[in-house]
From TrEMBL:
Name under which the protein is recorded: Terpenoid synthase
InterPro entries in the record: Isoprenoid_synthase_dom_sf, Trichodiene_synth
Alphabetized SUPFAM superfamilies for the sequence: Terpenoid synthases (SSF48576)
GO molecular function annotation: carbon-oxygen lyase activity, acting on phosphates
Organism: Mycena metata
Length: 348
């Protein structure tokens, strides 16, 4: 990050260009937060060594991202996604515990053999995956998109640990393909599937949105990396997507904005913003977002927009704006003080 002003200007331009809307923070929903809070304390908490303060932060992050990103979803769907998100975060932060790591190593094997998980945290993870699978009913393709990434996430965590702890040079190993680990660890297809399944009863034909899935998964992964970059720079982290891609591009001889025309992290940030911008435009165009929103406003226009088009548009818009808003609201990203500079209004 060259300067704080460079970062805020870059994000501000991106959010303006993609038409981000800063929606009001939702009112407290006791039907969602009540059961989630109880589950955190009574079921997930006892499977970990985390303090009450750590669990509260986990509840704030996992519960918040799902509440914000799925405003059209039922409480049932939101709770399942929130629980899986909380466990995924806990798994990633438990890899240094050798006993837990040993259980994580066997997670997929036990899953494939049909054996129960001996670790309480992993048993909860598996149980919630099964419950989410039930929600998707007979839609085998969408169910696969919603469930398999949670399994792949385990493998991504293990792969990352191997790269960090063996004699392999992590940078050399991952440098040619900086998006590889991100695509496995981002759980993006699962979150994308949730956008188009707001309730157990909702059944949107896959053909109505399948073309946008590559761009959508890219958006989910990379907008998070862009909005995470500020707090990672403050913490001095060097193994994030932006830094890894910077090293990859730099080693390839790309010319950037550095003193000696070297490629910099800010150049990568600008590049990723351009790629996100282009992906968002393609998604909006294929989902006919502008036309759908014109029809919702009652404006005259195309008459071939149907209720399924409108459902898709509402749920994509709700997810996109909510996911971005959550990053400004979640304490871990440290963006609240910058909100006024980026989107206007007061910090929160």
């Amino acid at each position: 990050m060259s300067t704080l002003s460079d970062y805020t200007d870059c994000i501000k331009r991106l959010l303006i260009d993609i038409g981000y809307r800063d929606e009001p923070f939702p009112a407290y929903d006791s039907s969602y937060w009540g059961p989630f809070h109880s589950w955190m304390l009574e079921e997930l908490g006892p499977t970990s060594t985390w303090s009450l303060k750590q669990l509260n932060e986990l509840e704030h992050a996992a519960g918040g991202v799902i509440e914000r990103s799925y405003p059209c979803a039922s409480v049932e769907l939101k709770l399942l996604y929130a629980k899986l998100t909380a466990i995924a975060i806990l798994i990633d932060d438990s890899l240094e515990d050798e006993a837990v790591h040993a259980d994580i190593l066997q997670f997929s094997h036990r899953l494939y053999l049909g054996h129960s998980q001996e670790n309480g945290m992993l048993a909860l993870y598996h149980e919630n995956m099964k419950e989410l699978s039930d929600v998707y009913g007979d839609d085998a393709v969408l169910r696969g998109l919603a469930i398999v990434p949670w399994i792949n996430y385990i493998d991504a965590c293990l792969l990352e640990k191997v790269l960090f702890t063996t004699q392999l040079d992590y940078i050399s190993a991952i440098k040619p393909h900086p998006h590889y680990l991100r695509s496995k660890s981002g759980i993006a297809e699962a979150y994308a599937a949730g956008i188009f399944k707001a309730t157990t009863e909702q059944s949107i034909p896959l053909r109505r949105y399948i073309r946008i899935l590559p761009d959508l998964t890219f958006f989910i992964e990379v907008i998070n990396d862009i909005l995470s970059f500020y707090k990672e720079e403050l913490a001095g982290e060097t193994y994030n997507l932006i830094q890894l891609r910077t090293r990859s591009l730099s080693s390839s001889g790309a010319h950037g904005s550095g003193v000696d025309e070297e490629w910099t992290a800010h150049d990568t940030l600008l590049l990723l913003c351009d790629e996100i911008r282009a992906a968002t435009y393609r998604i909006d165009r294929m989902l006919r977002l502008e036309e759908c929103e014109a029809k919702i406003r009652g404006e005259t226009g195309n008459f071939d927009i149907d209720e399924v088009d409108l459902e898709i548009a509402r749920q994509w818009r709700g997810w996109r704006d909510g996911y971005i808003s959550w990053h400004f609201e979640c304490r871990r990203y440290k963006l609240s003080p910058l909100k006024g500079m980026i989107v206007g209004g007061r910090s929160i």
